[in-house]
Fold this protein.
Amino acid sequence: MFRLAFRNIVRQRLRTAMTLAAIVFGVMALILSGGFVHDVYHQLGEALIHSQSGHIQVAKEGFQERGARSPERYVIEDSEGLRGLLAARPGVEDVMARVNFSGLINNGRSDWAIVGQGVEADKEAVLGSQLKITAGRQLGAADRYGVLLGQGVAQALKLEPGDYVTLLANTLDGALNSLELEVVGVFQSFSADFDLRAVSISLEAAQELLGTAGVNTFVISLRETPLTESTAEALRSGLAGSGFAVLTWRTLNSFYENTVALYERQFGFLQLIILVLVLLGVANSVNMSAFERVGEFGTMMALGNRRGDIRRLVIVENVLLGMIGGGLGVALGGVSALVLSAIGIEMPPPPNANLGYTAHIRLVPSVLASSFSVGLVATVLASLLPAWRVARIQPVDALRRNA
């Protein structure tokens, strides 16, 4: 049956070429669109990790929900002991301490509400590879009383590197404290909202401002992003019952999860549209081919083949077409993806973002498999009705087509 089906599709070159073209272009469209969507996931995730959250954060339970209102309740006192425990985990590249605070920054003329972080400057400079310094330089280890401003903060207060500002915040005891700081740089991250309120100062300055020797959060940088979930689970097991929460970058960035959900729905709808288009295109070709061969099928039935044999032959021919077309579509789609990725696709900034980026087409095994499956399934489905209809024609009526 397979040998006969293969000979038939080779013999009908025009119809075969039309059918294969519909399958190949459908599969290629799915590979390119799916690869583009997965590149959006990858680049957005890496931008958030390397500009804001790191891969994993460890803090006292409840800090993310209530820490801004009651920071004194969520200070980690034995910070070095916990740092050593976290750093010993396989896959961990570095562990950074942060102190979070909110307050006002004053340029001598007006105030601006900010959300600040006290950071270990040298380590954060390595983690923050996606931060774009638009003026000045990165915060360094020697900048004990330096401040790095988000672009929105700098624009609102008309500040430049070398200017001096006063930072006001409440200590953990509730008293008002202030520090005079020098602006060393202005940064631009992926998120415009983040840049509108964010400032970074040295960890020592933040501890002095808040009157504490502790920290609020440990940020973990991993060697590879795919290690995030396994490392987080291991940390949760190791810290169970200790009062610490382990949060991954996905949990910390709800914007990412919402974006992924949106794109997955859009890509699912696109898959459905392409499935229908391939189905209709292949169905037209298969239907015409099947009814042009009614006389041939009548001869086969006159020679003793059953109706079921005719149905199976038509379906098997289309299974072979689907496999060949799907394979060609995957091969050509992969080559097209590599070519487009080498060229790069310049993209404007996404909504609520500052920075544009260069998109690529990622070759994702699940997308390649699903695209091949769509091409094959659409071709097989398209063959069912023509196979059923030609098999129902009486042999005598079918043989008349040979006249």
